[in-house]
Amino acid sequence: MAHDSHCHSTQIFHDIVVEKRIIVNNLYISCTSEISSNLTNISGWNDRVKPYKDASIFWHYV
User: Fold this and answer.
1) What superkingdom does the record give (predicted)?
2) What whole-number distance in Å separates Cα of residue 23 and Cα of residue 44?
3) What are phi and psi of 48, to 5 degrees?
4) pTM of this prediction?
């Protein structure tokens, strides 16, 4: 029973985090009509997004 409750709580937490990330992405990451092969040309990429991308890649491999 406790395991089911923990799984449910974890799923709710996950859903909230994903929802908030989508909102933040829509607010702060600029959308371009052209797909750029060099993401560093997008305004704000290095100072706003790159640190999170690097951390995400690190934790993905952990």
Assistant:
1) Eukaryota
2) 17
3) -110, -35
4) 0.44
